[in-house]
Amino acid sequence: MLKGIKLKFYPNAKQKQQLDWMFGNDRFVWNEMLNLINQRYKNNPSLKILSAYDMQYLLKPLKQEYTFLKESDSSSLQVVTNNLYQAWLMFFKRKHGRPRFHSRKACKQSYTG
Which end of the chain is more exposed for a tag (fewer CB within 10 A), N or C? Predict the structure, then answer.
């Protein structure tokens, strides 16, 4: 039997700001990596998709280009690349649609640390 726990979190102003920052950075990395993969796939569909490891390898140059990403947890950004890789795998297995860009205005904001 699996058990779960539901928690309700009431962050103060500083914690809300930090959470918004983390949500934004995760969304930014998702959108940048998705754009990279879309361009690569558009230019040459016969190329193998980038693996989660390859995307994680690209995080370092991305952090150098966009310095605000250095303030995020590296593990959360790695989780984003893993999720994007899984989304592409499911697309190619024809179980789900093509991965989409994430919006700032979406109701569900998520962050995995």
Answer: N
